[in-house]
Amino acid sequence: MTPKIGIIGKGYCLPANIRTNDDPIFDWLKEHNPSGSDLFKGYKYRRYLANDENITNLMTEAALKALEDAHLEPQDIDFFMGYASVGEFNTPNTLLRVHQQIGLSPTCTTVPIQADFNNFNYALLFADSLIKTRKAKKILIVTASNWTKYVDYHTPASLSVSDGAGAVVVSSTEKEDSFSFVDYDNQIDTQYYGTMYVQPDLVGYKDDQAIYSCPYFHLTTAGQMGFSDFGMNAPPMVVNRLLEKNKISSEEICLISHQSSAVLMDAWQNAINPRQYINTLEDFANPEVTITTPNFPVLK
């Protein structure tokens, strides 16, 4: 029997700090109820990094756990992919620091995959293709988010964010119970470019020198429309199209989706009607490190 390509190891790491809905950081939002607040619902707990903590250590811990789960050493990995959102520097990405901290080989190809909401999905697609074409043998993927430090707590999107890191090892395997990549589909609407973005604001000038705020997540009015229109309708369309292509009934699937808000997740539940829908929104909010929309792979 020809070995299949599957996920042979997995790991994750979360900060110890927990933020509830009663946290004073949300007081302004409760008092003012700004536009878009109705889009972000369903959270109870959020994990967040303290000021003296960083996303790199979470990624390293998640990666080491995935390697241990796969019964591999760092030197066994020949291709390393993933992304830290938001990284230590604008560029290069923190993934390179993680390479150092894990102790991967100097010959291990390391490629940041910056596809925003689809970092893990595309990395998984590329890993499957690389192994099938014999360009790599054992691939480590690590994605992470530390957006709690990059939002404005006067904006509704800040209600959803949570920090965390996840990792998997992909390789040929004879284990029948390992997840393998089957197919994928996607839907893109570039009219919403510039409606959700991260950048600093120009605060003013001093002695002809521009002064900027820290970079943070912006969600414009058009972005709110995209969130509720494209975000609500495109994912079920993609999923149903993908299921039909592979002759799979929604009653046969377990759905794992991006966890931005219960508003979207409830709509997806009703439109797709999967047999099982894994939902950890209350406990972990939106850490941006799991399989996400609108790019859906099928894992078997």
Can you describe what's shown?
The longest helix has 16 residues, at 230-245. The chain has helices spanning 27-32, 55-69, 95-102, 119-132, 221-228, 230-245, 262-272, 281-284; strands at residues 4-13, 17-20, 45-48, 79-85, 109-112, 138-145, 164-173, 181-186, 196-199, 202-206, 209-212, 216-219, 254-256, 276-278, 295-299. The protein has eight helices and 15 strands. The chain has 300 residues and is α/β, with parallel strands linked by helices. The radius of gyration is 20 Å and the shape is globular. It folds into two domains: 4-181, 3-Layer(aba) Sandwich (Peroxisomal Thiolase, Chain A, domain 1), CATH 3.40.47; 182-299, Peroxisomal Thiolase, Chain A, domain 1. The strands form six sheets. The chain has a five-stranded mixed β-sheet, with helices on both faces. The protein has a two-stranded antiparallel ribbon with strand order 2-3.
